[in-house]
Design goal:
This protein is mainly α. The protein folds into 2 domains: 158 residues, Orthogonal Bundle (Tetracycline Repressor, domain 2), CATH 1.10.357; 126 residues. 68% of the residues lie in helices and 0% in strands.
């Protein structure tokens, strides 16, 4: 039972976010390269370890507030199933193992810096930045961007400006949406920063970021530097994906967490699968 709680503490389902590490691999046309694929898989494992350590640190810091949340009160630390001491040891072990793997498999200065930046920024988030309006969503958004750049560094691929901007804009949309639905569900009782936000403010900025996402992605898709001239065919699918995501997040039962939104929406999962197939088809055939 303890092992099950430790696994839950690591939040493996949130590794879905770390699939962003594979975007540079797919978009650059290196998916069929065994060495590049192995490098991306190693980067995924390393980043997942670091991400789990961040989740654990955050759960330790938030354990008292989590007890007041209808869903988070069941987390291993908040519920008392895992002690703070055990959780601290697990987080330290994950950081140590990730550092060792990073050192031996990808001793890049940029990659190591990105990994360290993600860890440090999120520790600062847990210990104060999450209580500062705008700064909290900026940190959450930066995490998505770091994943993409870390994935690019792992295989030596440059991330284009348009792709960076598209990921950044969509990351802000996801982060604002998470705050929006938290406020709808529990108000500011379990997160202090929510008292600074109104639903109107979040709605307006969410959809500004969503519009920018589509614009930046479209510019990336029609960029002459793209390996395939038909990449613009993916733009309508991306529009359908973000529309479906918006429909899900505005549902009365959605908590706004990107992972939960994706996993609970069969239409969204279907569109993402179709997008992946189309992207691979255009990139490799």
């Amino acid at each position: 039972m303890m092992y099950k709680n430790l696994i839950l503490l690591m939040r493996p389902k949130h590794y879905l976010k770390n699939l962003l590490i594979f975007l540079p691999l797919i978009f650059s046309g290196h998916l069929l390269s065994s060495s590049a694929l192995l490098s991306s898989l190693s980067a995924f494992v390393v980043f997942s370890m670091i991400a789990s350590s961040v989740y654990i640190i955050n759960d330790i810091k938030d354990r008292r507030l989590d007890k007041l949340h209808p869903r988070k009160k069941h987390r291993p630390i908040a519920s008392g199933d895992v002690s703070v001491r055990t959780a601290t040891i697990l987080a330290a072990c994950l950081v140590f193992l990730a550092s060792i793997i990073q050192y031996y498999l990808n001793p890049s200065i940029l990659g190591t810096s990105l990994l360290a930046s993600y860890l440090i920024i999120n520790i600062l988030y847990s210990f104060g930045l999450k209580n500062i309006p705008i700064a909290d969503v900026a940190v959450l958004s930066l995490g998505f961007v770091i994943r993409v750049f870390y994935g690019g560094d792992a295989i030596g691929v440059h991330i284009s400006s348009w792709l960076y901007l598209a990921v950044l804009a969509f990351s802000f949309y996801l982060s604002l949406g998470k705050r929006r639905n938290e406020i709808k569900a529990v108000g500011s009782s379990t997160r202090k920063v929510n008292r600074f936000y109104s639903q109107d403010f979040l709605d307006k900025n969410m959809y500004v970021c969503l519009g920018l996402t589509i614009i930046y992605y479209s510019l990336w898709a029609v960029d002459p530097a793209q390996s395939h001239k038909l990449m613009f065919l993916t733009v309508p699918i991306v529009i359908l994906i973000v529309m479906t995501y918006s429909l899900s997040i505005e549902g009365s039962k959605s908590d706004g967490d990107p992972v939960n939104v994706v996993l609970k929406s069969k239409p969204l999962l279907g569109l993402l699968f179709f997008y992946g197939v189309l992207m691979v088809g255009l990139s490799y055939f």
